[in-house]
Structure formats: C-alpha cells, structure tokens
C-alpha cells in the first residue's frame, strides 16, 4: 500500500505449517486487524509501518465464503527526522553493499564483454579490410586479370534501395524518436527528477516527452523516405504516426477494459484517458505533421559513394546460418547478455516490491548496450557483404533490433521462474505491456544498428576506387 506516497509492505495472512508434512493439513489464517504506526514532524508524515495483530485472525482453511470485518488502528508519534530525509531508508535498501556489488559486477562483466568484442572485431575488420583495400587498390591491369570477389564485387548493388521503403522509413522515424525519448528520460533521471516515491513522474514525463519528440519522427521518416525516392510522403507520415502508437493504443484499450472488468485500481480513469487523447491530437499529431513538412522541404539527397547499376545482381546460394533468423539470433544474444543482470532489478522494481534508484548504473549499462549493438551489427553486415549478399538494409535493422525479442524471451523466464504472478489480469498486464516495451526496444535498437551499418558501408565503399 501507499500512504502519502510512502510504500508500506505487510502480510495479509499466514500459513501454519507447524509439525505438518502434508500440505493438505496446513492451516490458513487471515489477519483482521492492522496496526499502523505513523511518525510525523510538524505537519509532515516522515515514516509509516504496518504490523498485523496475531491475536485477531480468521480461519480460512475450509474452502467456503467467510464474512470478515476488518479493523485498523493508527498510532501517531512525533519525530525529529526532517522531511527531506524521509526517503533515505528506501534509497539505502537498493544501495546496500551486496546489491551494489552485483550491479558493479554486472557492469564490469559487460565492460569486459564490450572490450573483448570491440578488440576482436576491430582487429579482424581492420586486418581484413586492410587486405581488401590493398587487393582492390592494385592497378587496373592486375584487377582485370583476376575475377572480382567479395564485397567489392557487389558495389553496383549495395546502395540499391530496400523493399517496403515506406515501412523502412517509418520504422527509422519511430526508432529515432524512441531513442531521443530514452536519452531525455536518462538525463532527467540523472538530474534527480524521478525520486523513488514520485510514482507518477516517470509516466507523466514519458507521455509529455513522447508527444514533444514526435516532430523528430516526422522529420526523420519523411526526409529519409524522399531520399529513397518515395512518392507518397503523406501515407508514409500516417504510417510513422501509427507504427508505435497504434499497437500501444490497442494494447492499452484491451488491458484497461480488463482492469475495469476486475474493478482494479490499475484502470486509468476516464479523465486521464481524455487528457492523453487531447495531448495526442493537439500536440503529437500537429508536431508529427510539422516534422514531416520540414523533412519534405529539407530535400537532402541520399549520399551513395558508388553508382547503382540498372539491374540487381543475383545473390549466390548461401548456407542456412547466413539466413535472417540465425543472424538475428547471433546479433541479439551478445547485447542481451550485457544487460540481463540489470534487467532483473528493473523487472523487480516495475513488477515487484523493489525500488530502483541507481540510475547512473543503468545509464552505463545503456551505453554498453548501444556499443555492443553497433559493433555486432557492423560485423554481421561486413560478413553479409563479403558473401556477396547485397540486401543489408532490412537485415541490419532486424539484427540491431533483435535484442528486443531476447528481452521478451526473458519476460517468459521471469514470469515462470521469478514472479508469483497468476490469473488472467496479472498475466495479460505483464505480457501486454512488456510486448509494447520490447517492440519499442526493437525499433530503437534497430535504428541504431542500421545507422551504424550505413556509416560503415559508406566508409568502406568510399575507400576503394569502384569504376
């Protein structure tokens, strides 16, 4: 429970197992009387605790309906603790030495992964690319004698625009917006806006910042779509607006209906929904359109260092592990392994009773996640081009975003192994909202992966003479 934004925990009953080995013989009792002890300083509540009265219980062992009258008593005590320090007790629990050790251990573990991966990839790619540049940089006669192979061979196809360019541009726009939103949230957290007991601040800032950053999505999506020589930019803009908001809105409608049916406090009141809808119609949509118009007028051209041929080259048959799904599995595993320890703490605070306060650690983990995603996508893009497969656009996006799928896989593990959730409402809330969050991660990290791959591909094709 919460009292004046202070969280309180307590047991609502107990199971009497004394001297009994058979679970069928256990006694179940419910506490009827709760004793609250409230510490106050002048007109401010500083601390609250709840204790159950063991003498006032009702037996629930038999499976039948029981009418219970609940009671509570409140004892007020004066204290000298100032109001500013009332949250210290909660902050300290998440900063206990053994918790901090685990956090730092996970960060060091992730950093070692990053350094090894970065060093390994940098060494391989530098050496391989150096050899490639030397081989391709020879004078033209020797180049004509030998048949071209590898990534140089497909220079006429590598900048051929991808299929479903409207969807691709919309995904990039949404991903860029979510990336900006995440950066803003981290900055606010590090400044100290989300102190542990201000439960509504995170939700409010997510809604407001998402609304204000929608212009970024419109601009990125439309300008990129027009770079890819797309014609229907208005439809592209509509797709960008609905790509993330659409599934989120449908999920929210379904889950809010479930919460109302269960008479749960998790159901958002009509007034709040109205405010969110108004923000969407009066702020998000106009900014999206303005961003789209600015993107249309920016008229930047796609910077391709080599000319694209008229007809696409046939992709040679490749082994199964070069397919999209095996590559996504490889690409998602490493970034996920760098963040999964921190994921447990986040899940425990969002879906459990912990309070998460160590935003600095979370920021470091996020930076590590971005670095690993960038490097793994670049490496897989290079191996794909070296195998003369020029369809790297969508592949780099899917490989970058595949960490989101791994996080959803972790949700299944967390639900069964770590949480005590049960029943339709808890299950639908957990999997419904986590699906939206993981989808957001997929779009955001996919954008990061594609941008990294694009920089890399431009760089290597600039460095060779591709006549």
From TrEMBL:
Subcellular location: Endosome membrane; Golgi apparatus membrane
Keyword presence, Transmembrane: yes
Bilayer disposition of the protein: Multi-pass membrane protein
GO biological process: protein localization to membrane
Keywords annotated in UniProt: Endosome, Golgi apparatus, Membrane, Signal, Transmembrane, Transmembrane helix
Segments crossing the lipid bilayer: 102-125, 167-195, 201-226, 238-262, 268-290, 328-347, 359-380, 392-415, 430-457
GO cellular component: endosome membrane; Golgi membrane
InterPro entries: EMP70, MFS_trans_sf
Family of the protein in this entry: Belongs to the nonaspanin (TM9SF) (TC 9.A.2) family.
Protein name (record): Transmembrane 9 superfamily member
Organism: Kalanchoe fedtschenkoi
Organismal lineage: Eukaryota, Viridiplantae, Streptophyta, Embryophyta, Tracheophyta
């Amino acid at each position: 429970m919460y009292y004046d934004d202070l969280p309180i925990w307590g047991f609502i009953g107990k199971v009497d197992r004394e001297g009994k080995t058979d679970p069928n013989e256990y006694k179940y009792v419910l506490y009827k009387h709760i004793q609250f002890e409230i510490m106050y300083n002048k007109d401010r509540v500083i601390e609250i605790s709840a204790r159950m009265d063991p003498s006032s219980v009702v037996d629930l062992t038999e499976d039948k309906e029981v009418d219970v009258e609940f009671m509570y008593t409140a004892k007020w005590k004066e204290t000298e603790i100032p109001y500013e320090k009332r949250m210290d007790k909660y902050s300290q629990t998440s900063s206990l030495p053994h918790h901090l050790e685990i956090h730092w251990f996970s960060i060091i573990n992730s950093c070692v992964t990053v350094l090894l991966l970065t060093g390994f990839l940098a060494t391989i790619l530098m050496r391989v690319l150096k050899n490639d540049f030397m081989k391709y940089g020879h004078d033209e006669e020797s180049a004509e004698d030998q048949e071209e192979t590898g990534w140089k061979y497909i220079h006429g196809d590598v900048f051929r625009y991808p299929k479903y360019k409207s969807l691709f541009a919309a995904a990039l726009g949404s991903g860029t917006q979510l990336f900006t939103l995440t950066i803003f949230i981290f900055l606010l957290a590090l400044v100290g806006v989300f102190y542990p007991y201000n439960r509504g601040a995170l939700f409010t800032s997510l809604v407001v910042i998402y609304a204000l950053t929608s212009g970024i999505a419109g601009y990125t999506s439309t300008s990129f779509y027009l770079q890819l020589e797309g014609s229907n930019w208005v439809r592209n803009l509509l797709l960008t607006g609905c790509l993330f908001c659409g599934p989120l809105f449908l999920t929210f409608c379904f889950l809010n209906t479930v919460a109302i049916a269960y008479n749960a406090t998790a159901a958002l009141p009509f007034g709040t929904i109205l405010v969110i809808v108004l923000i969407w119609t009066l702020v998000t949509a106009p900014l999206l359109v303005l961003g789209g118009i600015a993107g249309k007028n920016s008229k930047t051209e796609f910077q391709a260092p080599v000319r694209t041929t008229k007809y696409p080259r046939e992709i040679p048959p490749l082994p199964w592990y070069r397919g999209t799904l095996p590559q996504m599995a490889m690409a998602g595993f490493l970034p996920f392994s760098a963040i999964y320890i921190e994921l447990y703490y986040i899940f425990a605070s969002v879906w459990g009773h912990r309070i998460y306060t160590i935003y600095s650690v979370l920021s470091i983990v996020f930076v590590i996640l971005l670095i690993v995603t960038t490097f793994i996508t670049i490496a897989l893009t290079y191996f794909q081009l070296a195998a003369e497969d020029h369809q790297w656009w969508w592949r780099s996006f899917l490989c970058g975003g595949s960490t989101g799928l791994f996080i959803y896989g972790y949700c299944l593990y967390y639900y069964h192994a770590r949480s005590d959730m049960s029943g339709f409402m808890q299950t639908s809330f957990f999997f419904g909202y986590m699906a939206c969050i993981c989808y957001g991660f997929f779009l955001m990290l996919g954008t990061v992966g594609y941008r990294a791959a694009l920089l890399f591909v431009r760089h290597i094709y600039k460095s060779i003479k591709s006549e």
